[in-house]
Amino acid sequence: MIVVEHLSGGYEDVPIVKDISFTVKKGKILGILGPNGSGKSTLLKVMSGILPATTGTIAIDGQNILSYNARALAKKMAVLPQLHANAFSNTVREAVSLGRYPHQTGFFSSWSERDEQAVQHAMLQTGVKRYEHTPMEFLSGGEQQRVFVAQALAQTAEVLLLDEPTNHLDIAHQRQILDMVRKEAVECGLTVVMVLHDMNLASLYCDELLLMESGQMRAFGAPHEVLIASQIEEIYQARVATYAHPEIPKPQITMMPAAIDYQQRAVIKKEHFMITEHFIQLQSEIPLKTVSSAVHNPGIGWHNCLLNRSVPGDYVISDVKREVNEFLQRGDFSPTNTVVMLTAVPTALVAINEFYAPFGSVIVAVTAGVGNAVDVSRVHERQDEPYIGTINTWVIINGCLSDEAFFQAMMTATEAKTKALQSENIRDERSGTIATGTATDSLLIAATQKGKEMLYGGPITEVGKMIAKGVFETTVQAIRNYKNQF
Amino acid sequence: MKKVVTAYVLTCALLIISIWCGVAIGSVHIPLEVLWNQAVDETAANIFWKIRLPRVLLAGLVGASLAIAGAAFQGLLKNPLADPYTLGVSSGASVGAVMTIFFNISIPVVGLYALPTFSMVGAIITMVVVMSFARIVDRSLKMETLILTGVIFSSFLGSLISLMIALSGEELRQVIGWLLGSVSMRGWPYVQMIIPFVIVGSLMIWTQRRELNVLLYGEERAKHLGVNVKRSKYLILAGGSMLTGAAVAVSGTIGFVGLVVPHMTRMIWGSDHRHLLPLSFLNGATLLIICDLVARTIILPRELPIGVITAFIGAPVFSYIFYKQRRGKGVRA
Asked: Residue A37 and residue A41: Cα distance in Å, rounded?
């Protein structure tokens, strides 16, 4: 455990860091963030005693570090600064062994069993054991960095200070080093303080973050308390947005390049839809922000190509991912840039309508097969295999939607679809009640994201009204097309 | 471990062979028996005990001192081109020694040790001045800065020596003879004179062998690893200057030994100072004994100054190291 209280210090009587206080508990990782020149590295140097502290105290396990001599301190606290190559080379093993320096005392002190164990452990943890006898200069930058981490680990100190341990490393090596630091913290109770440049890495690996600005603490707390878009924008003078990490409960931050043209308005038109025997395609010149429950590329993303593909009724649904990928490759579609839905309805039965609105326009395309229609309030009584989606709805908006508006648009579109089924008197075959949809309907909302941002997409907003009207009318038309055919 | 044993065995064997060659080869043949029976050949025994053995021992001690000092300076300054000669420390020691001869200084108590004492003082002062000047010019103490500073101070100190020579009268021969750098005709007193300094200086450096290993990674890193950097630096600089001063006092300026020997040793046996320091010490002795042997036998009956031979080997090695450094590749330990 390390406790820093009211610490100030820096170069030659000019305090660079001012009044810093924080506590890192045993086995926890603290990340220090801040813009260039905010005093991150200086803080680490003051903490490690390289630069003088003018006021304040640093205590490890309740004891002020000033009360230790250099050797005793090195046993308590290991430091890994940003290192440079040196003119003479050691082998990896020799370099790691230097971490044992503070533990060797006396004129003729020899290499003990514990020294050997610590060095072996450090080399294994960092994965440098296999280079043991290789001279340092034959290693890549990432490997050298790992050797230095091993050197610090070999000190078997309780506290580890790291200055940008992932500098100049590729993503695999960044992960490797930080995973290893995390492992040491969790398994061996190592207390870690590290300066990081990358806010996303810091968020992923640190328990707590300290955000610095001009040598002072701006924020301290869990990643979600520190990485707040407005706060980061203010300190870094850069536009950012936060989003959730896909797997672990930590925020991530991405920067927003300077805003570009708002000029292009309604660019998607009904004529852009191409209908072949096998699919309905919309190819857009600009990427569309899509939110969908499609088979391929579902979720939130940016895509240029939308496909609603007609497949036979006996299509094997269990292997759908692989089959769709093969289909895309056969048809020369970009697998990463295409959203695909599947339907058993012939493409000729699609209904496509364009609706104009003050902000631009909304185009709705629906293929509706209502043979498997169900009443959602009664589906718990059924035990069916999944079918191929039978009502596929696309809503293309020439306009800019917020995240809320996208989800509200999905709700609005779903309500309008349900209303269309009711108005066409489509019934659940089992229960005989009015159907609300089919078992595997898909919905896609796509927007050009040009023009003024529309914050909401509920039924009484301009865009909501158009979506409601459009989806209702188009679904009714599509259902009638289907009824006429079968 | 096995490699280390091999290193010491080979190095010691080389030293013993060179010592034997040093005492055995020459215009007068020395039979082996003189070692235990002087009566076998009175003249040969005299030459052996009074001329060749002290000469070989002196060459060995001077070489050992310069080599271990060079190894320590290189490690401390993380600079493979550092040695007492290139840093100007040798010149400083020379000025001290020449001044002693020129002003005929003698100190009552130290007696015989006046010359090495003043040499050492010269060496230490030069070291401190060169280091502080280089630090003012360039805080990071880059290799070029340090070598250039060494060259500047060497030239300046060289001109001081020239001045004293120009002004000197009857001491001239003595000064010139000393300056040429030689271990010939020095005899046992000089061996006695240098031995205490060699022991003390080498021990001072040897206590810092582990610290030197850590210091290779920079002073900051050394501090992180628990080294008392200031104490270490002072011990190494003082020990190195003491060795240089003593060596210069007995033999004049002999260049490049402190550069070549640690470099070769490092190349063959690695840069771990725990072994680099003693091995450099032994190899330094071997090299200078062989150089002296060559110097006195190559153009018989005349004798070359030993500095000529060391410079002959040293300058190309210096160029090679510089080339390797500039091409961005570290010198392989």
From this structure: 9
**Angstroms from B108 CA to nearest CA on chain A:** 36
Torsion of CA A328, A331, A334, A336, to 10 degrees: -10
Sign of the alpha-carbon dihedral angle for B274, B277, B280, B286:
negative
Q: Which CATH number fits domain B2-326: 2.40.50.140, 1.10.3470.10, 3.30.420.40, 1.10.760.10?
A: 1.10.3470.10
Q: How many C-alpha atoms does B154 have within 13 Å on its Cβ side? A: 16
Each residue's pLDDT tens digit, B37-58: 777 777 888 888 888 889 999 9
Segment 147-186 of chain A within 8 Å of chain B by CB: 155
For testing contact with chain B, the best of A44, A77, A88 (most B CBs within 10 A): A88
Structure tokens at A104: 């060797």
d(CA A382, CA A431): 10
Instruction: Please give the model's pTM, rounded to 2 decimal places.
Output: 0.75
Q: The tokens 């040196």 sit on which residue?
A: A86
User: Tens digit of pLDDT for each residue in B144-187?
Assistant: 787 788 889 989 998 988 888 888 777 677 677 677 667 776 77
**Spatial distance between the Cα atoms of A134 and A139, rounded to a whole number of angstroms:** 8
Closest-CA residue of B relative to A153 is: B225
Q: Per-residue b/e over B193-223, b at no fewer than 16 CB within 10 Å?
A: bbeebbeebbebbbebbbbbbbbbbbbbbbb
A270-485: CATH, from 2.10.260, 3.30.70, 3.60.70, 3.90.660: 3.60.70
**A247 φ, ψ (degrees, to nearest 5):** -120, -40
